[in-house]
Amino acid sequence: MSLTIKTLGRGRRVAAGSLIAVTALTLSACQNGTDSASSQSSSAAAPATSSASRAQGAPSTGGSPQSAGNAARPSSVAKPSAGTSGVPSASQANPSAMTASDRCTAENMSLRLGRTDVGAGNIRVPLVFTNKGKKACSLRGYPGVSLIQRDGSAVGTPASREGGAGGSVRLQPGQSAHAVLHTVNDGVSDIPCWKDSQIVFVYPPGSKESMTTNSGGLRVCGGTFTVTAMEAGVPS
Fold first, then answer.
1. Which residues are CB-neighbours of 163 under 8 A, at least 6 positions away?
2. Which CATH code for domain 100-232?
3. Cα torsion at 122, 213, 209, 162 (round to 10°)?
4. I need a surface site. Which of 138, 183, 186, 203 has the fewest CB within 10 A?
5. Do the Cβ atoms of 202 and 143 come closer than 8 Å?
6. Using one digit for the tens of pLDDT, what is the confidence trace for 39-62?
7. How many Å apart are CA 92 and CA 87, to the nearest integer?
8. What does DSSP say about strands 226-227 and 160-161: parallel, antiparallel, or unpaired?
C-alpha cells in the first residue's frame, strides 16, 4: 500500500515537472515571437519614417521634431546664384557708358550752327550739340545731316563722312560738342551750287530721332558736302 503511494507521488512530481517545462517553453516561445514581431515591425517602419523625414526636408539621420521643422523652413533653401534663370548678371544689373540708355538723344539736347569759318576757298560750319538734360550723356561718331527747304523738300544729298570716327565725347549738363559741316565757295569747281537751304535736318549719332535748326541760308557748292565725327567743345 505504501509502495503505491510513493509511486503515485513520484508520478505527480514527474507530471508537475513536465507541466512546468511545457509552460516555460510556451512562455519562451511567446516571448521570442513577440520580440521577433517587434523587431520586424521596427525594421519595416524605419524606411517609411526615413522617407517621410527626407520628404519633409529633415536630415536622413533623424533628429527631434524641432530639428526637422527647422530644416524645412524656407530660410534653409539655397538662393539661386547670379546668372541663373530669372537672376540678373552683374553686367545686366550695371550697363556700361556706351549703352543706348547713356547716349545723348534729340530729346535731351539743343542744336545750332556755330560761327562760319571761311578760308582758302573752303566753308566750314560747326554743328553744335548742347546737353540740356539733368544728367551726363555721351556722343560718338558721325551725325546724319541733310539740307532741306521750309516745305520739307530735300536740297541735294545727305552729307558724306569726312575724317576718322574719333572717340566718345562725354557731356555734363550744359556742356557742348560739335561736328563740322564742310563745303566750298562758289567758283572753286565747275560743279554748280545747290539751291539755298533754310533748315539743317540732323540725326544725332546713334539716334533715330531727328533735330532741326536754321541753316542761315547755307549753300553747298562744288559737289562738296561733308560732316566730321563729334568733338568736344565749340570752336572759338
1. 228, 229
2. 2.60.40
3. 10
4. 186
5. yes
6. 444 444 343 333 333 333 333 333
7. 9
8. parallel
**Cell numbers placing 107:** 530729346
CA atoms within 13 A on the CB side of 41: 6
Which tens digits make up the pLDDT trace of 206-220? 999 999 999 998 999
DSSP assignment letter at 146:
E
Q: How far is CA 160 from the centre of its chain?
A: 37
| 128 vs 235: CA distance, rounded Å | 9
State the amino acid at position 63 in one-letter form.
G
Q: Cβ neighbours of residue 229 under 8 Å, at least 6 residues apart? A: 140, 141, 142, 161, 163, 164, 165, 166, 179, 205
In the chain, where the domains are located: 2-75, 100-232
pTM for this prediction: 0.58
Q: Nine-digit cell at 140?
A: 560718338
- Sign of the torsion formed by the C-alpha atoms of 69, 75, 81 and 86: positive
For residue 123, what is its C-alpha cell?
566753308
